[in-house]
Amino acid sequence: MARLAYVNGRFVPHNQAFVHIEDRGFQFADAVYEVIVVIDGHLIDEIGHLDRLERSLAELRIAAPVSRRVLAILLRELVSRNGVALGTVYLQISRGVAPRDFHFPVGVKSSLVITTTRVNQRFTSPEKLEAGVSVITIPDIRWLRRDIKTVNLLAQVLGKQQAGEQGAAEAWQVDGDGFVTEGCSSNAWIVTRDGVLVTRQATNLILNGVTRLSLIRLAAAQGIPFEARPFTVNEAYQAREAFLSSASTFVLPITAIDGHPVDGGKPGPLCRALRQSYLDYAVKEGRSALTVAV
Ligand code: PLP
Fold first, then answer.
1. Separation of 99 CA from ligand 1 center, angstroms?
2. All structural domains of the chain
3. Catalytic one among 149, 160, 266, 284?
4. For residue range 150-209, what is the model confidence (pLDDT) as tens digits?
5. Which residue's alpha carbon is nearest to atom 10 within ligand 1?
6. pTM for the structure as a whole
7. 10 Å Cβ neighbour count for 75?
8. How many CB atoms are located within 10 Å of the residue 82 CB?
9. Is 149 annotated in the active site?
């Protein structure tokens, strides 16, 4: 079966799926996106992703190309046509196609592109989960509206490349005062020496991860002590545990930061427990969201 993409009203073969050269996403990064995980054909944390999409669109004053209800149907349709049991669905909305001009074009319809990927067995190998991953720290050189999920990801492209070249899975970005903001495509977490779960509070300085929000709810339900506050790189070096969260990694243990082993260099118990809670929640929520979202 040929892989399909959805582009502005049509399902087309993936290798013939094109946007115009004057699409504003291409010329100005004037576009927003979401990545939603698919498990057993269900869209995980769909409500959170569609809520954040609407917020990103509103912040940039981009009109939604289709209603939320139609979007939910299109996402499912592509997942089903591409036979995705396990994988991701990616959607991108740009301000549309118009002659290159910085001002918002008038009377132009926003563009919608949807693609899917398939994952064979697992998102993360058991070996990787057992060993944990390492991160490096880098200066956060991004703009100040990181709360909007735009396709302007150049700083993150550079950060991830640097991480990869240094054998790390992720780069934690650090603000001018030495506090970690977030990873290039994930939120950053630590567990302090006295067992408090910490991640930075959601402001304009980080993307409020949908996985992050679900983890905060799950931790609260289990009575896990939690603080939403910035932490320094030094505090992270000394943490009892560290991990990252994102839609496609869920919760991933970090066992080294800038080459410093995190508490003996083994994934910690709270990280493992939260990963399991998230997976349990995701599968359950994925099934029930089917009726809620459509
Ligand atoms: N922070 C950044 C900069 C990201 O790009 C992402 C995901 O792509 C996240 C955090 C995690 O967000 P989510 O849990 O919604 O995938």
1. 31
2. 4-118 (3.30.470.10), 126-285 (3.20.10.10)
3. 149
4. 999 999 999 999 999 999 999 999 999 999 999 999 999 999 999 999 999 999 999 999
5. 186
6. 0.96
7. 25
8. 21
9. yes
